[in-house]
Amino acid sequence: MANEANSVAKDMVVSLAYKLIVDGEVLDEASDKDAILFIHGHRNIIPGLEKELIGMKIGETKSVKVAPKDGYGDKDQKAIEELALDEFPKNVKPKVGLELEMPGDDGHGSYARVVSVGEKSAQLDFNHPLAGKELNFEVKVVELRPATSEELSHGHVHGPGGHH
User: Fold this and answer.
1) Domain membership of residue 10 as a residue range
2) Is 65 buried (19+), middle (13-18) or exposed (0-12) by CB count in 10 A?
3) Phi, psi angle pair for 84, to nearest 5°
4) What is the DSSP code string of 95-127?
5) Is residue 160 part of a domain?
6) Beta-bridge mates of residue 137
7) Together in a domain, 66 and 119
């Protein structure tokens, strides 16, 4: 039992420093000081990365490659939709590469990126920007502790660096 407390396992709060590299470019990173906190085994991070962290100890580093199916999924051609230009908000001029938050039917916004603009309509890609991409992580376990029963019932970390 004592051994589990100092390695990444289900229901442990993991403090993780990381660098995310996609297509040779660093897209996101967190140092030891601003490491992300999450409860392992609760799908708080992408499944392909979560699986690779099991058994890591404090101070341990690792390079992890995550295939699209274990990251943000493959690009879905059905997630590319046509929108008439007059349906865009008046203050938005659609141009290729423009990123928008589109209101969803459920009240939650969804991310979309303009991929083409025609005379009367534009095509919006609702895929996650990293869909279809291989994700390369350089990770380091900064701290570990067992999650509290309250954190486990809420499914996320409480306190500094976590959700409330």
Assistant:
1) 4-71+133-154
2) middle
3) -60, 140
4) -TT-EEEEEPTTS-EEEEEEEEE-SSEEEEE-S
5) no
6) 20, 64
7) no
Alpha helices in the chain (DSSP H): 47-53, 149-154
Q: Looking at the structure, tell me whether residues 106 and 137 fall in a common domain.
A: no
Considering the entire predicted model, what is its pTM? 0.80
In order along its 164 residues, the chain shows pLDDT tens digits of 344 568 999 999 999 999 999 999 999 999 999 999 999 999 899 999 999 999 999 999 999 999 999 999 999 999 999 999 998 888 888 999 999 887 777 777 788 999 999 999 999 999 999 999 999 999 999 999 999 999 999 888 987 655 44
Q: For the stretch 100-139, what's the b/e string if a residue is b when 16 or more beta carbons lie within 10 angstroms of its beta carbon?
A: beeeeeeeeeeebbbeeeeeebbbbbbbbebbebebbbeb
Q: Are residue 67 and residue 83 in the same domain, yes or no?
A: no
* DSSP calls for 36-54: EEEETTSSSS-HHHHHHHT
The verdict on 47 and 92 lying in the same domain is no
The pLDDT value recorded for residue 162 is 56
Calpha distance 114→83 (Å, rounded): 10
